[in-house]
Design a protein that fits this description.
single chain, Aspartate Aminotransferase, domain 1, 2 domains, three-stranded mixed sheet, 45% helix, binds pyridoxal-5'-phosphate
Length: 413
């Protein structure tokens, strides 16, 4: 059909397309909601270079500093030299390298599950988790502040999907009770909430799941490597590992690599291998990523000092910022490395981020739609490799910001 169109008509439709895009972008700019990419010229370390300028950053998920750990880099280099840069095919064709199998076994041991399966990203792991096991006759009940990938996954699954207000588990239970009686029910939550840094009460949710005969899936992208005595995540910390039916995690945060995984019962993993479209129709993780994650996992297990330093810093920074009158959300222990400073409107968050930038601190403003309207914020991510001097510099800048803005109470969302 297209080539039957007159040339002029094609051009007109292209023109009107680009015009409408420009209009939408201009509206975004006006609302302080325009996003753009800034090339980073250095590694994901506490000190970075962006556009030729030097900053101390509080904006990386490389929580333990493992993305630049010499042993992790060496493992990635060796794997690349031996096995090449790309895996060459999907897992079910010829892309399933021994390294992937080794990492999957290590992840299953780490998460205390029968088996685990790798995906190219955590996003794709979440897609697989819900679209494979939930279908049109089923019900998914999820926390309103769950990660966008879980929301997308719930939509793609075709299941009836309802959200409950953040951490309001009585409401979750009501929704589960009200779902179709013979449908399979899924209760789905982030373990650590990525924009608020608070955590779910997994024991309370496991009780809800039990009472309503639901399956209980968690996404512990931010807790993996960070929380728990062995660093295995929030479920380990809250002592509920055996009450969770399926765990999604990522290699891309504390483990310093790229890739997602699902850990759970053998039958669930075999089903994913046989039917998950975001597993089957995509190329296997590059060998360097798998080897780096394996090395990172070894360090997580052998070196608890990194996560205990991170927890100490997280507790200290939260306490100090709250003491200055900032709204750091409602999180209670454990202190996660994600600390929001909620400022209200997008313009205020952007202005605060800019003024911190002028002081050499890189802390992004997070705006709607990533967070709910009127809860635009600065989002601080801490790393175990931040020095005490970095932390003092951060707190000094916020002290000044609070005085400049007379910011004792922020507008609540
Ligand atoms: C980052 C994140 C993901 C996605 O993981 P990627 O590996 O980056 O695709 C999924 N869930 C949560 C809660 C996250 O924070």
């Amino acid at each position: 059909m297209r080539h039957n169109l007159l040339r002029g008509e094609m051009l007109r439709s292209r023109e009107s397309w680009l015009e409408s895009l420009s209009r939408n972008l201009a509206a975004r700019r006006e609302g302080h909601l325009f996003r753009e990419l800034r090339p980073l010229e250095s590694a994901a370390e506490p000190e970075i270079t962006v556009g030729g300028c030097h900053f101390v950053q509080f904006a990386s998920n490389n929580y333990l500093g493992l993305a630049t750990h010499p042993e992790v880099i060496a493992a990635a280099r060796e794997a690349t030299e031996r096995f090449g840069t790309g895996s060459g095919a999907s897992r079910l064709v010829t892309g399933s390298m021994a390294l992937h199998h080794q990492l999957e076994q290590a992840l299953a041991r780490f998460k205390h599950t029968e088996a685990a399966l790798l995906f190219p990203t955590g996003y794709m792991a979440n897609l697989a988790a819900l679209t494979t096991f939930a279908g049109e006759c089923d019900s998914i009940i999820s926390d309103k502040l769950n990660h966008a990938s879980l929301l997308d996954a719930a939509r793609f699954s075709g299941a009836a999907h309802r959200t409950f207000p953040h951490c309001q588990y009585r409401r979750a239970e009501e929704l589960l009770q009200r779902s179709q009686p013979d449908s399979r029910r899924f209760l789905v939550t982030d373990a650590v909430f990525s924009m608020d840094g608070d955590v779910a009460d997994l024991a309370a949710l496991a009780d809800v799941a039990e009472r309503t005969d639901s399956l209980f899936f968690i996404d512990d992208a931010h807790g993996t490597g960070v929380l728990g005595p062995r660093g295995a995540g929030l479920a380990e910390l809250q002592n509920v590992e055996d009450r969770i039916d399926l765990t999604v995690g990522t290699l891309s945060k504390a483990l310093g690599s790229l890739g997602g995984f699902i850990a759970g019962p053998r039958a669930a993993i075999d089903t994913l291998i046989n039917s998950a479209r975001s597993f089957i129709f995509t190329t296997a993780l590059p060998p360097a990523c798998a080897a780096a994650a394996l090395a990172a996992l070894r360090i997580v297990e052998a070196d608890p000092a990194r996560r205990s330093r991170l927890a100490r810093l997280a507790h200290h920074v939260r306490t100090e910022l709250r003491g200055m009158g900032f709204d750091c959300g409602s999180s209670t222990p454990p202190a996660t490395p994600i600390i929001p400073v909620i400022l209200g409107d997008a313009a205020a968050a952007l202005a605060a981020s800019d003024s911190l930038k002028a002081r050499g601190l890189f802390i992004p403003a997070i705006r709607p739609p990533t967070v709910p309207p009127n809860s635009a914020r600065l989002r601080i991510s801490l790393m175990a490799t931040h020095t005490d001097a970095h932390i003092e510099q951060l707190l000094e800048a916020f002290r000044e910001l609070s005085q400049k803005r007379g910011l004792c109470v922020s507008p609540s969302a």
